[in-house]
Amino acid sequence: MAQALLGCIADDFTGATDLANMLVRGGMRTVQTIGVPDTDARIEADALVVALKSRTIPAKHAVRQSLEALEWLRAQGCRQFFFKYCSTFDSTSKGNIGPVAEALLDALKDDFTIACPAFPENGRTIFRGNLFVGEVLLNESGMENHPLTPMTDSNLVRVLQRQTKSKVGLIRYDTIAQGAEAIRARIDELKEDGVRLAIADALSDADLYALGKACRDRLLVTGGSGIALGLPQNFHSADLLVYAGDAADLQKIDGKAVVLAGSASKATNSQVAEWRSSKPSFRVDPIALSRGEPVVKNAVDYARNHDETVLIYATSSPVEVKTVQKELGAQTAGRLVEDALASIARMLRDAGVRKFVVAGGETSGAVVQALGIHSLRIGPQIDPGVPATQSVATNDDVPLALALKSGNFGTTDFFEKALKAL
């Protein structure tokens, strides 16, 4: 197989699988690595996705990790690069989207890129620079209550401008609707005006395909996974890629399963409530963890004593989250939950569990690292933005089946659907 064509850097683990899912749908054989690999050996894939855990760390660390990922991807021979972040633009006034995008542009010696987190299939659209989640603005969607990255402004031009010294512009919908050539012309106008980063409107998949086509010759593209819809076709058109109809094929894995949920999003809260209405569940209490109570052991014992799949969750309502954060601090509370769920996953793996459904980007990152997974093959879509995946076994490792879900993604019955898909 020829060297990889598209090299991607994702700022969290579920975002990485979300992106990889899009590329597989476009016929690109895709491998996702967990962090930057410590080897220069070539990986056989059309697209490579490096999953970082850099969304909420200090901006300077996020920049350093992203540049390390870029260096590895360039060594793999990639021709174009993609910086992937959440479709709700999760970030703070200090970053990390702006600083990372700027650093990547500098490293590539490039002068412009777009920023488009739109994902219409999951209800994320952008109009006149404002991000909508379903029918409401971002700052009215529940994201204003996010414990780490509260999104209180729907205008992404303003949000991104607060994060960067570069001038930020806008590619409005009336230009997007005219197609790729009009978008390229607008990009040229923005560059002449000194703009280096531009938010791009998008209301439909057709808009994302147009943006992808317009970015055919750009070294760097940034956005949510949706914008990746239009990138594979550019390689097809240039006769660099042959559509792989079997790109999503995975082998069957047998064994017990578990569902782990750490996200406090509205979607995950609904999914947890749906499961708990008829199936066994165990709640991980961060206050009990802080007191040194044997929560991890009790959760593992609970799962091992049930023949059917159980849910182990730390998901709470926004009010409960704020109460816990007030007592423990946001960072401490989050770390306690992530560490606990990671330990539970590792102990259950050792007890024979082979299938893991995980809700929450930070939780997924902690679990994947605890399981010692270095890379994933990407399989078929379960729900928009969430594919089935399978660990790439090394040495005598047993492959694991995983569904890693962003907190905001998935239908109410997602956990049940994911278990069937795995």
Automatic annotation (TrEMBL):
Coiled coil in keyword set: no
Annotated InterPro entries: 4-carb_acid_sugar_kinase_N (IPR010737), 4-carb_acid_sugar_kinase_N_sf (IPR037051), NBD_C (IPR031475), NBD_C_sf (IPR042213), OtnK (IPR050007)
Record field: catalytic activity: 3-dehydro-D-erythronate + ATP = 3-dehydro-4-O-phospho-D-erythronate + ADP + H(+); 3-dehydro-L-erythronate + ATP = 3-dehydro-4-O-phospho-L-erythronate + ADP + H(+)
EC nos: 2.7.1.217
Residues covered by the Four-carbon acid sugar kinase N-terminal domain: 6-230
Keyword ATP-binding in annotation: yes
Name of the top EC class for this enzyme: transferase
Keywords from the named record: ATP-binding, Carbohydrate metabolism, Kinase, Nucleotide-binding, Plasmid, Transferase
Molecular functions (GO terms): ATP binding; kinase activity
Domain of life: Bacteria
Segments forming domain Four-carbon acid sugar kinase nucleotide binding: 258-415
Cited function: Catalyzes the ATP-dependent phosphorylation of 3-oxo-tetronate to 3-oxo-tetronate 4-phosphate.
Family label: Belongs to the four-carbon acid sugar kinase family.
Protein name: 3-oxo-tetronate kinase
